[in-house]
Structure formats: C-alpha cells, structure tokens
Design goal:
The complex is a heterodimer.
Chain A lengths: L6 E3 H15 L3 E5 L17 H5 L4 E3 L4 H13 L3 E8 L7 H8 L2 H4 L9 E6 L14 H5 L5 E4 L3 H13 L4 E6 L6 E3 L13 E4 L4 E5 L2 H14 L5 E5 L2 E3 L3 H11 L2 E8 L4 H13 L8 E5 L8 H7 L3 H12 L1
Parallel strand pairs in A: 2-3, 2-4, 4-5, 5-7, 6-7, 10-11, 10-13, 13-14
Antiparallel strand pairs in A: 1-8, 6-12, 9-11
Helix pairs in contact in A: 1-7, 3-4, 8-12, 9-10
Chain B lengths: L17 H26 L14 H9 L6 E5 L3 H7 L3 H8 L23 E5 L5 H15 L5 E6 L6 H13 L3 E7 L2 E2 L2 E2 H4 L5 H7 L3 E6 L3 H16 L5 E6 L17 H9 L2 H11 L4 H24 L20
Parallel strand pairs in B: 1-2, 1-3, 3-4, 4-8, 7-8
Antiparallel strand pairs in B: 5-6
Classes of the chains: A alpha/beta, B alpha/beta.
Chain lengths: 330, 336
C-alpha cells in the first residue's frame, strides 16, 4: 500500500492487528465494554471501525460485567473461537481474576489437554495520567506468576502490531498489556505481514557496559538514559522483553554474560515485581561473572497517588535508572 | 419458605412416555449405585479422595440430560457426579479420573472436581461456586454464532445464586438470548447453610425473573415434571428464544462432603426428604406403567456390572508418571 502512513500510533497498531486477525480467521471475535462503533469504538477508540467492518456479531459491546466477559471468552475459546476480550483498564481485571486464574489458565491442564483456551485479554494501564489508585496499576507480576498464562507488553507501535497478532493466534491464553499514556505516541508503521513471535525479546540498543532489561514504557525511559550516558562514555544495552511470561531467558542471559552488569526496570511497584524474578534468574546463572549485584528499578511501595506531585515522586523515573546504573558501575 | 414444598403432591404434569421414564431411571440408577459404591470404597480406604455425595439428586440431572443430545454441552460443578454420568461419560474413564489415574478422562490431572469429557459434551466442571455460569455463556455464544443448534446446560446449586457470577452471567445470557439452560438444583443447603439463612429471595425463580429471564420452578425429583420443564427449555433455546432458568427442587441426603454428617439439617426435615426419596418413587412409577420387575432388575444388574468393572479398572490402572505435570500447562511441554 503506497499510501500507507510511515508512522502510526500505538492504538492504531492494535486496531490494525485486530483487523488483520479478523480478516484472516473468521473465528476471531471481539468483546468488551463499549467496543462497537455504536458505543464509540472503545473508550480509547482502539476498536473503532471494526464493528462496521466485521459486524456486531463479531465485535460485541458487552454489559459492564468483567467476569461475564472473560467467562464468555473462555467458553467460546473451548469450542474453537479465538476471542479477544477487552478489559477496559487493567485494574478491572481484578473483577475477572477467577475466570482468568482458575479457568483460562488451568482448563487445558485440568482437562488433560482435551480442551484449550486460545483467548487474548487486551487491557490498558499506566500511571502519570492523574487517574489515581484504581485506574493505573501495572499488575503483570500477578499474572506472570500463574502457570498457563502468557503475558505480553509491547513498547512501540510496530511490536504492538506484531505481538497482538501473535497473541490472538496463540493457542494459549495471553494477557496483552497496552500502555495508556503512550497510546497516542507515534512510531514506525509495520508492514502488513509483520509478526513478532511470543517469548522472544529484542535488543533495540546494543552496548557493552551494562544491560538494561525492561518492557512496555520502561523501554523508552531506558533509551533516554542510555543516550544521556553515552555522552559520558557509558555504553548501555537495552533489552526489550516484549513477552514478560515466559520471558526470553536466552537473550537476557546472553546480554548480561556480555556486559556483566544489569538493571531490571519496570513501572510496576518494585516489591515482588517481575524484576525480582528476572534478577534472580541472572544471579542463578551468572553470579560469579557479575561486576555487582543486579539492580532493580520500579515504582514505590504505595498505591498510585492522585496528586501529580506525589505521583511523580512515587513513580519510577529516568533519574532512578541513572542512579542505579552509576551505583552498579561504581 | 416452606421447607417441604418439594414434597408437595406431584404436579398435574402428564406422565412422561414409558421409554423416557425407563431412560431416566437407567441413568438415575447408575448414579445412585455409583454414589453408594464411591462412599463405600472411600469409607473402606480403597480411595482417598474428597467426595461430594449426590444421593437424592439423581432424578434432576437424569431427566435434564434425557432431554438433550450427546453433542449438547454441559458445564457443571464439583458436586457433579450425577450430571456427568447422566450426560454419558463412560464409567471406566470417570472412575479412573476420580482415582487420579492416567486412564482417567483428564489423565488424572483434573480429579473429581474438574472433570472434562468433550466427546460427551462435558466441557467444564468447576470447583469454584458460580464460575461455570459465565463460561456456559461462551459455549452458548459459539453455538449461536455457528448456528449449530446445540444447547448448553449449566448446573449449579442454590448457593451459587448468591455470587456475582450468577447475576452477571444470567444478565448477559438474557441480553444476548443465548441458547443456555441454567439448571439450579436447589437442595436447600449451600454447604452447611440453609437457604433461608443466606438467600434474600423466597425462590431462585424470582431471581431469574428479576433478570428478565424465562424462569420456572419444578419438583426436580419428579421425573415427568422435571423432564417436561427440561424439554420445554431446550425447545425454547433451540428455537432461538434464549435462555431459561429452571429451579429444580431436590434434596441432598448426605453432608456437603463425605465425612460431614449433616448435623445442621433438622431431623424432621431429613426424615421427610428420605420419605420422598425420588429413586423408589421412580421405580414404582415404572412398575405402575407396566415395566416388569424383571426388566427393572435387569437395568439395575447391568448398571451394577458397569460400576463394578469401572471401580476395579480404576483401582488397577496405573498412576500417571510424575513428569506429566510439565505437559498441558501450555501447548508445548515445559522444560524440566
């Protein structure tokens, strides 16, 4: 397509991935609150135009009933559908946790492989927008701890397109985490057949002194810090996990084996976050080679605060990443 | 509410056809004998499992499943042996699963509370009260989109109607007119708690009506009445009219789980319930419509043989290898 834009927004990329999946496979259906065009095409317009293109049988607005939404997605997935359930904001996943944890994640195993749940749950979240404690949490660590679930978080429009398509076509339940504050940030547009396999990290910036292991919005922050420190002769490698669970251990360990130092960076609360698991795996495999213990950067041990003044102090920052790098490299 | 409403005189529903009653009895007797055998074997230490007895509720599910086909779907709960047998899961595989064996329906990875057997339409058995309801909607949605004419039966107890999933699920099913039959087997106790203590409405039917759903309340222990309600709900769903809530009154003759003595059930209530035991009543009905004692005895003997064979098979079958835990977590095997 010669008239295709060279740059698109993250939200557009998700929309295009769903459109492609629906065109490729009639068993792909979407459901969620307000997602059909008549209800506005989603609160962030991520599904805009899809019901017009594919009909409201396949693009269904639902009641505000997260258990019922995920349950209906689980049930249809058991008998051949590839449903994409939109949970408007990640905090609302708490309402559907029974369906996600006890059913979507376990039915393949508990049925001895007779059934499976090829379901994708799209959800968005992220602090810094003044939405306070119940609309901003990053809860990926909860989900990554559940055997049977895959957890994916893209950092740019091109990956979002390729990863969401893979998530929808994956035979396992996938939680696809979008980032609200960067929904309307532009990036290079993907080719229509662009696919990013799940479980494969990327190394968008190579370096030799330290590995910054991150995902979602952390990638942008790590790039900015790496750029700044490059001026001082500190060479940072950025590893974008893209899939949080199962994470690409091979790429992470290869990077740290080279740099012999690492910081894991995420927006989620630091305590018991995914950084603990990743850091631990690095220590288990590469302890004797490390220049210093692996560092972790995350947000503070508190609910996401409302006031911008407190939120800023609470939230992980480029300053935190820089301090952690300097501490490690001494 | 009147605790003995279930035992009121049989309604004026017409007696079901002879073949139908024999079919229902055949399923119900298999359930009754299986329940007795399970309790006996657990009591004797031959099986070490948590077991939720179903004695007393045989007729509800037998009449329901007699009104649907093998390819129709079933979603049920941890007290589900009666539903699973009535739906047609072969006894050998079911017993082996209860015993945690590799030859079980789920390779021993589900166990009694998580039975799945797609060949007979048993898609989910959940151990989480009320959770099957939203999933049943998904099966119904698939049938609606595929126009395959299937219905989904979703079984749960009166206790499940106090959990949010019931209200979310029934609302969505009604809004979307899904081909689902919500079968509330009201045995008047949610675990140890009597219905009147924890349920704000007098009936479960009222709750369905409040959600705008076609809702009926029947004596589930009466085979003909239960079958008529089931058949009507199935026809209504297949015709594209949407779901039905059936509140089927029944009773549980044993505690919540085996080992629970049911001390919280008043003696007089239990005495009355046992007098109303649906199994001898159904057996007598067969005799009344000229099914011979010999024919009934033959059904019972055949069921006994099936169960004896299945129980022995379950005891003798090998356990799964320990490494089986790495299989079926995802579509690919998890590395050791």
């Amino acid at each position: 397509m010669s008239d295709a834009p060279k740059e698109i927004m993250f939200a557009q990329a998700c929309n295009m991935a769903m459109a492609k999946a629906m065109a490729d496979d009639p068993k792909v259906i979407l459901m969620g609150e307000d997602i059909a065009d008549e209800q506005g095409g989603g609160v962030f317009k991520v599904t805009a135009g899809l019901s017009a293109q594919f009909g409201t049988d396949r693009v269904r607005s639902t009641p505000i009933s997260e258990q019922a939404i995920v349950g209906a997605a689980v049930g249809s997935a058991l008998v051949g559908y590839k449903p994409v359930a939109e949970i408007m904001l990640m905090n609302f996943i708490t309402v559907a946790m029974d369906q996600i944890v006890n059913h979507a994640a376990k039915l393949r195993f508990m049925s001895g492989g007779q059934t499976s749940v090829p379901l994708t749950i799209r959800t968005t979240t992220g602090a810094g927008t003044g939405l306070g404690g119940q609309h901003s949490d990053m809860l990926e660590a909860w989900l990554a701890h559940v055997p049977g679930l895959k957890v994916v978080a893209a950092s740019n429009p091109c990956d979002a397109y390729g990863l969401l398509y893979s998530s929808i076509m994956d035979p396992n339940p996938v939680i696809f985490i979008e980032n609200t504050p960067t929904y309307f940030t532009k990036g290079p547009a993907p080719a229509p057949d662009h696919v990013v396999p799940l479980g494969v990290a990327s190394v968008p910036r190579e370096g030799s002194d330290i590995s910054l292991i991150t995902y979602s919005r952390g990638v942008g922050a790590c790039h900015a810090v790496a750029e700044k420190l490059a001026g001082e002769g500190i060479s940072c490698e950025v590893v974008d996990l893209r899939t949080i669970a199962p994470f690409d251990e091979e790429t992470v360990l290869k990077s740290v084996a080279k740099t012999k130092a690492a910081v894991v960076v995420h927006e989620a609360v630091k305590n018991f976050g995914t950084g603990a698991e990743i850091s631990s795996r690095i220590h288990e495999e590469l302890f004797s080679e490390l220049k210093a213990p692996v560092g972790r950067v995350g947000s503070g041990y508190a609910p996401v605060p409302f006031s911008p003044a407190i939120e800023k102090a609470w939230m992980f920052s480029e300053g935190d990443i820089e301090r952690e790098i300097r501490k490690i490299l001494g | 509410m009147d605790d003995h409403q279930r035992s009121k005189a049989l309604s004026d529903t017409q007696m079901a056809d002879k073949d139908v009653l024999i079919d229902i009895f055949t399923r119900a007797d298999l359930i009754m004998q299986s329940d007795i055998k399970f309790r006996k074997m657990i009591g004797a230490g031959q099986l070490q499992i948590v077991y939720y007895p179903v004695r007393g509720q045989e007729v509800v599910s037998s009449a329901m499943m007699a009104a649907i086909n093998q390819e129709d779907y079933l979603v049920t709960i941890y007290r589900g042996l009666h539903d699973q047998l009535a739906k047609g899961i072969p006894s050998k595989e079911l017993w082996a699963e209860f015993a945690g064996k590799m030859a079980g329906t789920c390779k021993g990875k589900g166990g009694p509370m998580h039975i799945t057997h797609p060949e007979t339409g048993v898609m989910v058995t959940t151990g989480i009260v009320g959770s099957g309801i939203p999933i049943a909607n998904g099966l119904g949605l698939a049938s609606q989109l595929d126009k395959d004419g299937k219905v989904t039966v979703c079984c749960f107890g009166d206790g499940a109607t106090n959990i949010g999933a019931f209200h979310e699920g029934l609302n969505m099913a009604q809004v979307w007119k899904l081909p689902v039959i919500f079968l509330c087997q009201n045995n008047l106790y949610s675990e140890h708690t009597p219905m009147a203590f924890a349920t704000s409405s007098d009936t479960i039917k009222q709750r369905g009506e409040g959600l705008g759903m076609r809702s009926v309340r029947v004596n589930g222990n009466d085979a003909s009445e239960m079958y008529a309600a089931a058949k009507e709900a199935v026809e209504y769903a297949r015709a594209g009219n949407g779901p039905t809530l059936i509140e089927a009154m029944t009773f549980r003759f044993h505690g919540h789980l085996l080992g629970d003595t049911g001390h919280y059930i008043p003696e007089a209530e239990m005495e009355q319930a046992l007098k109303d035991d649906p199994m001898p009543i159904l057996r007598q009905q067969l005799l009344d419509i000229q099914v011979s004692e010999a024919d009934i005895a033959a059904i019972e003997a055949k069921n006994k043989a099936i169960i004896d064979e299945a129980a022995q098979f379950a005891l003798d079958a090998p356990y799964p290898p320990g490494d089986e835990y790495r299989i079926d977590v995802l579509d690919v095997e998890i590395a050791a």
